[in-house]
């Protein structure tokens, strides 16, 4: 099995969360889905595991945070263009997300932030890597 990342998110209403992410064009993986968990593929190597609170708590080693009142992680998801950022954000807003702040436009990077129905924070962005590198905005490596 190739390396993948599975981002585990606790959700209050599994059906609502599945419907939300499917409305954004992401795919439900039936093989990893049951009444307590659902696997959503964002792209080949990136998946969300949406877990009911009880199921999430079985894995967690610390108390579960309330994403509506605290930020424990910012999930950044790149898109191919500014228009693609706007398209995904607008679809998310139509499906029940909120946008907590205005778009952030640096010229070389365009970023919009959304909170999913449970309050998890996603940063949807486009970046011109060449322009960012020329402006010393990206680490060299």
UniProtKB/TrEMBL annotation:
PROSITE patterns: VOC
Source organism, top-level taxon: Bacteria
Annotated VOC domain residues: 3-127
Cross-referenced PANTHER family: BLR2408 PROTEIN (PTHR36503:SF2), BLR2520 PROTEIN (PTHR36503)
Protein name, UniProt field: VOC domain-containing protein
Source species: Cereibacter johrii
């Amino acid at each position: 099995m190739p390396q993948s990342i599975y981002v585990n998110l606790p959700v209050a209403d599994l059906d609502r969360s599945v419907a939300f992410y499917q409305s954004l064009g992401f795919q439900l993986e039936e093989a990893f889905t049951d009444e307590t968990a659902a696997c959503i593929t964002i792209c080949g190597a990136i998946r969300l595991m949406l877990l009911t609170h009880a199921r999430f708590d079985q894995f967690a080693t610390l108390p579960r945070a309330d994403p509506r009142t605290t930020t424990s992680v910012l999930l950044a998801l790149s898109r191919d263009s500014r228009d693609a950022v706007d398209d995904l954000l607008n679809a998310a807003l139509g499906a029940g997300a909120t946008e907590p702040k205005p778009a952030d436009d640096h010229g070389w990077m365009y970023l919009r932030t959304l909170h999913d129905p449970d309050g998890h924070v996603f940063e949807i962005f486009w970046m011109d890597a060449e322009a960012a590198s020329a402006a010393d905005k990206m680490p060299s490596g």
